[in-house]
Amino acid sequence: MSRSKKQPLRKCVVTQEMLPKKQLIRVVRNKEGEVFVDETGKKNGRGAYLTKDLEVIEKAEKQQLLNRHLNAQVDTSIYDELKSKIKVDKA
């Protein structure tokens, strides 16, 4: 009876869906108030997860959802970085 390891689930802040962590991108605000994309998913700080989907990222940007979740001003460059990562992943 072999049980496969349970995948950690996280909730996308846009779609409110619970998904395996690997299908999401984590954005973090650290103690210094810097906001950045956390590729490892292990950095310290307040994290928000987004589904790896261009529409989701654009919706988050339009509705300023990350600002609310991270209690910080999220720069446009963060959204640009997220979008370019998704394009790379899809390629």
Automatic annotation (TrEMBL):
Record InterPro entries: YlxR, YlxR-like_sf, YlxR_dom
Source organism, top-level taxon: Bacteria
Residues covered by the YlxR domain: 10-83
NCBIfam families tied to this protein: RNA_bind_RnpM
Annotated protein name in UniProt: RNA-binding protein
Species for this entry: Halobacillus mangrovi
Lineage: Bacteria, Bacillati, Bacillota, Bacilli, Bacillales
